[in-house]
Amino acid sequence: MFGRFGNLAPVLVQNVQQSQQQRGMATLKAISIRLKSVKNIQKITQSMKMVSAAKYSRAERELKQARPVGVGAQQFYEKAEIQPPEDAPQKLIIAMTSDRGLCGAVHTSVVRQIRNELQLSSENTKVICVGDKSRAILQRLFGKNILLVANEVGRLP
């Protein structure tokens, strides 16, 4: 079978065996390459931690400023002397999701909960969608229940 190759057959077989990965101790070069890649990954991770810490502190500052508005709104609704109509109780669900981003599991969880509520009593329930993701998911099955959609809330001009 190797008649065409003549005396080259043992050399070719030996080259194939050498080119295959050998198990055992890693070479010094392989270890140094791996160490460099680990250090680079550590640097990237550290910079990502710093960015997320800065974003978190900014969000905390903004939340601290917005808290009095929420307290005032809650007091307003507690002191309002409006009675609901006696005939059929109405429900309002406010879906808070983002317009875009990489938090798909959050959107799915929010919409799943709303979908369960709407399947129980969809006739007397209205939904306000804050964020485009909730509207996009709920529009197909429960479009008639969507009362209002607010997009790009919180964007700076």
Give the overall form. elongated
The SSE order reads HHEHEHE
Largest sheet: 3 strands, parallel
**Number of contiguous helices:** 4
Number of domains as seen in the coordinates:
2
- For the biggest β-sheet, the strand order reads 1-2-3
User: Strand percentage, roughly?
Assistant: 5-15%
Which keywords apply here?
157 residues; mainly alpha; three-stranded parallel beta sheet; 4 helices; 3 strands; 58% helix; elongated; ATP_synth_F1_gsu
What does this structure look like?
This protein has about 160 residues and is mainly alpha-helical. The protein folds into two domains: about 25-80; about 90-150. Helices cover about 60% and strands about 10% of the residues. It has four helices and three strands, in the order ααβαβαβ. The chain has helices at about 10-20, 30-80, 105-120, 130-140, and strands at about 90-95, 125-130, 145-150. It is elongated, with a radius of gyration of 31 Å. The termini are far apart. The mean pLDDT is about 85. One of its GO terms (cellular component) is proton-transporting ATP synthase complex.
